[in-house]
């Protein structure tokens, strides 16, 4: 992956340079979001991207808890 394209922190889709939103947390980590939908699902609604079918991080069959 080149330096011009970064993956979205929520859905794992590519975010081209000059688009999307960069969010810097207080602990110094940087989150990149491709859309307001991804940003809202991650920060406001605190959803797990593995449970949503429209993300590339979706796990078929569900997530098992021990």
TrEMBL record:
Zn(2+) binds at residues 8, 11, 34, 38. It holds the Pfam family Ribosomal_L24e. This is Large ribosomal subunit protein eL24. It comes from the Archaea. It comes from Candidatus Nitrosomarinus catalinensis. One of its GO terms (biological process) is translation. Residues 8-46 form the TRASH domain. One of its GO terms (cellular component) is ribonucleoprotein complex. The lineage of its organism: Archaea, Nitrososphaerota, Nitrososphaeria, Nitrosopumilales, Nitrosopumilaceae. One of its GO terms (molecular function) is structural constituent of ribosome. Binds to the 23S rRNA. Transmembrane segments: none annotated. HAMAP family: Ribosomal_eL24 (MF_00773). The keyword Zinc applies. The keyword Protease does not apply. CDD domains: Ribosomal_L24e_L24.
């Amino acid at each position: 992956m080149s330096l011009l394209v970064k993956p979205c922190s929520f859905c794992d889709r590519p975010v081209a340079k000059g688009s999307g939103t960069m969010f810097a947390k207080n602990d110094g980590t940087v989150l990149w979001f491709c859309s307001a939908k991804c940003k809202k699902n991650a920060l406001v609604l605190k959803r797990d991207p593995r449970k949503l079918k429209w993300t590339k991080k979706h796990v078929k069959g569900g997530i098992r808890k021990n």
